[in-house]
Specification:
The structure holds two protein chains of two kinds. By secondary structure, chain A is an alpha+beta fold. Chain A contains 25 helices and 25 strands. Classes of the chains: A alpha+beta, B alpha/beta.
Chain lengths: ~800, ~220
């Protein structure tokens, strides 16, 4: 019997080649995108699975009175908390202190370097591929590698016990290799060293006081630990010990599971969006399959009736349908798996990889996704196999055998509620895409308050082998550039717009009794000239004056406003506890967007530093006259090729760096665009099937109308009118939802566009045009049919 | 006695009025009869045939089929009854397009859960009997109307029903083809199969042993 069903199914599918093909395309594309979205969600949610007892791990967050918050705490706090709190089982720091250079024989490499307490494994328990958790961080001169780095250095060998030379002097023994860590995990590790190693470092020692927050603190708590008591105790410790506890509003104890969204807040949007998108696409696929199945039903009613006459049970008819759809669904799952592995996954990695790391599919690890998609396939098969059949199976045999199903009447809107749902979703995505496109376009092209075109930016933070030689060669380059007629400005700085350090300091103005948290950076006298940022008060840096003039600073307007000053006459930036001279403020620059437009322009200060401080500046910026970029590029590159350094000199244009800030959101846009195209495409496939069904049902009506003199246009209108109305209804439902969603999202951008009616109009128009085109194809075909033929078949 | 209809009424309500499709039908059919139902379009011929074939219900009256009272039976029993005893032949053949001749013949047997070997034997037997062995792997669309109807009759016969119901079996055929089919019916009847056919043609009706005339749902 099953063999028979299978045979009939295959022949049926083959007979309706066009329809099956449409179905298969729609399904494959749809399922592959659902697979991709769900896989990334799955990868995200399971990324931290290798940390045992995650639920009992917490981290601290400091909240300041000015509204800012950060995860770092002063170094001594951790031990104090561990020693005083019965709730805490163990605690560890995990922080960077510059990425260390490692040598293995001739090869030199630098990786992200983190320092941790020996209790690290008691808190996080990250499994080791090689080595022992108990002893891995015990020895001062030990190092733990991630699996990836171990592979790079040692291949498949077990490196435990081998020695790496760090910073040319220290012999570090490899004591462990982590199991592979998912790139979506909350950890981004490279190598991990015991922080006992830093105790030899005088700078480090000088920083580990109560006034300096640079390391996050993680704790493992007992089950049923009293969080409130712990919080109160920690806040008390803060008040008792901090150098300046007055700025602290409070401490928060947050579960470790929240740290990822804390670090990259947009993750929530991406994950939520992915889940919503995959559900929607899934819904659309299902509806589509239902629509296309319904469209073949006209022919099928007769079939079903004949079968019933021949003695078939209803069950057997349903089974037949399920098998037919099952074949489609599972073939498309296979096709979409191939699409997923060959196209979608690499694309996903290209899009979100730079921010989140590349993920890969491993059948042994990720089999739940496979099981999940098969389960979804089964459910889909049952739904689309049973649902439409039930409606047609009820047709009395005596009617069905004549192919008369017009007797089953139902409400127009109800009958087409599927199409409305589909198009609502499709139009929703199109609207979101249109608005997001506008927003990103706005952010990329907005007036940022500085010149970004033709500004060549090179990284000069290259770890020079011989700094003195490098410096003299660099100075020669600077002189040459300044003398070059094609160069309009030269500057070296610690930061450039789009790449400022998160380096904040609170300064205090005794006069107004105001504390202002200001972002800090260092720049030379050419910085504002090169970027063409105008001064609103005071003067720009000047080498001749400022070189011997303490540390003059220039603040931005936001900082001026934050202090509540109207003039900078005699003003200085000072710490609250500072009794010294402070930094004299020599000028105020106009606010410029030094960070992306998702963030507001906050108080910012630039501290003067000489142009030739090669070892401390990170960037060389050169404003070039248009058309001469190549020549200057070559000139700088060749100069750097003669300076020996561990890292390579790279250069790019500021405009690209500014645009690159929007890479993540651009990735979201790309995903939304693809989803929008996909949903409208699949919806149209379904509608194409439905209208051919309608056309078949109306063959007689069309024939009669044509005999009575109706033209092709009239018939096309007759067939398409209803669907156009449906699209309009869908638009009316979709627009407010899109407005609500996007309004909320745009609210998270510091600078955003206003949503205009034409954006919805545009989205609706796109949907309408695509629909009209799809409808037209089939409607014209039916309208052109010879009425003599269609009337004769009755 | 094969079946008996007593005071059968069937109607539909249209615009507040009751329109009778069948009115007080009394009919007794003995085994081995060959009955032709005749009458103008809309006189209720097909409706009567559908009622006899249990494809359609009725609103009033009694229907006994081999001592079972059809009007009291549940849908499931009724379909078991017609599955077992009745074979249908249609004007437009109603073969399943995506199945070959052989598979079309096999279909009713599948639904009756015959074993594979039995099915093969019965199909081969039927192909042989109707001289269509050479066409067994063709699809309906590849056959002429007469041949399709031949397959239709063969399919109706394959499960050895007691009764064959034929709704204008020659309506779509030319005269020589229809003569062939009618000869076949005659032969089957002689072999003991009861046949009830609906027809417009006096010539076809003449093959039968009894003619029932219908007018406006009434026997005359």
């Amino acid at each position: 019997m099953f063999k028979n069903h299978l045979k009939i199914s295959l022949r049926n599918l083959w007979k309706n080649k066009t329809l099956s093909f449409l179905n298969l395309i729609g399904l494959s594309i749809g399922v592959s995108s659902v697979l991709t979205l769900l896989f990334s969600v799955y990868a995200y949610y399971t990324a931290d699975n290798n940390i045992p007892e995650r639920d009992s791990i917490v981290y601290l967050k400091t909240k300041l009175k000015d509204g800012n918050e950060y995860r770092e705490v002063p170094y001594p706090l951790l031990d104090k908390v561990i020693n005083t709190s019965p709730e805490v089982i163990a605690g560890t720091h995990l922080h960077g202190w510059g990425n260390i250079w490692l040598e293995n024989g001739e090869k030199e490499f630098q990786n992200r370097t983190d320092y941790a307490d020996p209790e690290f494994f008691k808190v996080f328990g990250l499994p080791l591929k090689y080595g022992n958790q108990e002893t891995a961080l015990k020895e001062k001169y030990s190092i733990i590698l991630t699996d990836k780095i171990s592979q790079q250095i040692y291949g498949d060998e077990n490196p435990v016990g081998k020695t790496l030379v760090a910073a040319d002097t220290l012999n570090l023994k490899v004591t462990g290799v982590f199991e592979p860590i998912s790139p979506y995990a909350s950890f981004r590790l490279g190598v991990v060293l015991p922080n006992t190693l830093l105790k030899d470092n005088p700078t480090f020692i000088s920083q580990t006081n109560w006034g300096n927050s640079f390391s996050p603190a993680y704790f493992k708590l007992r089950t049923n630990a009293n969080i409130t008591a712990l919080k109160q105790r920690i806040e008390k410790l803060v008040q008792e010990n901090y150098t300046d506890p007055s700025v602290i509003a409070g401490m928060e104890i947050l579960p470790y599971s929240e740290i990822r969204t804390d670090i990259i807040p947009v993750v929530d949007t991406i994950i939520g969006g992915s889940i919503a998108a995959s559900l929607f696409v899934l819904l659309i696929i299902l509806v589509n399959l239902l629509n296309l199945n319904t469209s073949t039903m006209f022919k099928r009613t007769k079939d079903i009736a004949v079968r019933k006459v021949l003695g078939s049970s209803k069950k057997s008819v349903v089974i037949q349908f399920c098998i037919e759809n099952g074949i489609l669904v599972f073939v498309s799952i296979i096709i979409s798996s191939i699409l997923f592995l060959l196209i979608n996954l690499p694309r996903l990695n290209d899009t979100f990889g730079p921010e989140f790391g590349r993920i890969s599919f491993d059948i042994f690890k990720d089999y739940p996704v496979v099981i999940g998609i098969i389960a979804v396939g089964l459910v889909a098969t049952l739904v689309v196999g049973i649902f439409p059949t039930l409606r047609f199976i009820k047709v009395p045999v005596s009617l069905g055998i004549k192919g008369k199903i017009d007797q089953i009447k139902s409400n127009f809107l109800l009958r087409n509620s599927f199409i409305i749902v589909q198009f609502t979703i499709a139009i929703l995505f199109i609207s979101i895409a249109v608005i997001l496109n506008q927003q990103i376009g706005f952010m990329k092209n907005a007036d940022l308050g500085f010149e970004r075109n033709n500004v060549l930016v090179g990284n000069i933070d290259l770890d020079y082998k011989n700094l003195d030689v490098a410096k003299s060669k660099f100075n020669a380059l600077i002189d040459e550039l300044e003398a070059n007629p094609y160069v309009k400005g030269v500057s070296t700085s610690q930061a450039i717009p789009s790449d400022y350090y998160f380096n904040y300091t609170s300064y205090y103005d005794a006069e107004n009794d105001k504390d202002v948290r200001i972002r800090r950076s260092y720049a030379d006298d050419g910085y504002f000239k090169t970027l063409e940022v105008p001064m609103v008060m005071g003067r720009n840096f000047e080498k001749s004056i400022d070189k011997s003039n303490g540390q003059p600073v220039i603040i931005n307007e936001a900082a001026l406003k934050a202090f509540g000053w109207t003039s900078i006459e005699g003003k200085k930036l000072k710490y609250k506890t500072d009794t010294g001279e402070g930094y004299p403020i020599v000028g105020v620059v106009k606010d410029f967007h030094y960070q992306d437009l998702q963030n507001a322009v906050e108080p910012l200060v630039h501290i003067y530093r000489d142009k030739n401080a090669l070892e401390r500046h990170r960037f060389l910026s050169v404003k070039v006259i248009e058309g001469q970029e190549k020549e200057i590029e070559n000139m700088i590159a060749s100069a750097f090729s003669e300076i020996s350094s561990r890292r390579d000199y790279e250069q790019s244009y500021l405009v690209d760096k500014v645009s690159a800030q929007y890479q993540l959101i651009g990735g979201i846009l790309k995903t939304v665009n693809i989803t929008a195209i996909l949903t409208i495409f699949i919806s149209c496939l379904g509608m194409f099937g439905l209208i051919s069904f309608m056309a078949k049902r109306k063959v007689k009506e069309i024939g009669i109308r044509k005999v009575l003199g109706a033209g092709v246009t009239k018939i096309v209108v007759l067939l398409s009118k209803d669907y156009i109305i449906l699209v309009c209804v869908a638009s009316i439902i979709a627009f407010p939802i899109a407005w609500y969603v996007m309004n909320a999202w745009l609210g998270t951008f510091a600078y955003s566009i206003a949503i205009k009616w034409w954006m919805f109009g545009f989205a609706g128009l796109i949907a309408l045009l695509i629909t009209a085109f799809t409808l037209g194809l089939q409607a014209v075909k039916s309208a052109m049919a010879n009425p003599v033929k269609s009337l004769r078949t009755e | 006695m094969l079946l008996q209809l007593n005071n059968i009424f069937k109607w539909v309500n249209s615009g507040g009025q009751r329109i009778f499709l069948l009115k007080d039908i009394n009919l007794q059919v003995e085994e081995g009869e060959f009955i032709s139902i005749m009458g103008p379009s809309g006189s209720g011929k097909s409706t009567l045939l559908n009622v006899i074939g249990m494809l359609d219900g009725f609103d009033e009256g009694e229907y006994n089929f081999l001592h079972e009272s059809v009007h009291t039976l549940k849908e499931k029993h009724r379909s078991n009854l017609y599955k077992e005893y009745i074979g249908f032949v249609f004007q437009s053949y109603h073969l399943l397009d995506e199945l070959t001749v052989q598979e079309n013949l096999e279909m009713p047997l599948l639904y009756k859960k015959f074993k594979g070997s039995e099915r093969k034997a019965m199909v081969a037997d039927m192909l042989d009997r109707f001289n269509i062995v050479g066409k067994k792997d063709l699809f309906p669309a590849q056959l002429s109307g007469g041949q399709q109807q031949l397959v239709g009759v063969a399919r109706a016969l394959i499960a050895s029903p007691k009764l064959i119901l034929a709704d204008e079996p020659t309506g779509n055929l030319n005269s020589s083809q229809s003569e062939e089919i009618m000869e076949l019916f005659k032969q089957l009847n002689q072999e003991g199969v009861t046949i009830i056919q609906v027809t417009h043609s006096e010539q076809n009706a003449a093959y039968g042993s009894r003619v029932i005339n219908l007018l406006d749902g009434r026997m005359i």
